[in-house]
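Translate sequence into structure tokens.
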Amino acid sequence: MTQPPDIESSSLREIGDVNLNYLVLVQRLLREDFAVGLYRTGLSEETGRIFLQLSFQQTVALASSTTLLCGFRLDDASMLAALTHSGLSDSLQQARMTMAMAKAPAIKLQAVAAHTGSI
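Result follows.
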């Protein structure tokens, strides 16, 4: 099903905005504390270093992709259901989420390189 041109272009602009915000956030987290930034973003060390080396022009070019650059890390339905169980206290919910995210695999270099030709 195709979308009307104005809805599609609006969605693409929003994807670009999300991408740019994501990339800026990733770079800021990595600059503030590299190890913690890697943990919070799920990036591998190699990918994190590449993100830090991106120029402004490369960051904007990467953000202009028509595909979301950030991914949903909780792609296991049973894990997501368990983590969103409403009977847990906020602190227990946060602890379970932290443990689940620690087990999530790091994003590899190919995910970044696929969107940029100049890295």
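Note: The domain at 5-71+105-113 is CATH 1.10.4000.10 (Flagellar transcriptional activator fold).
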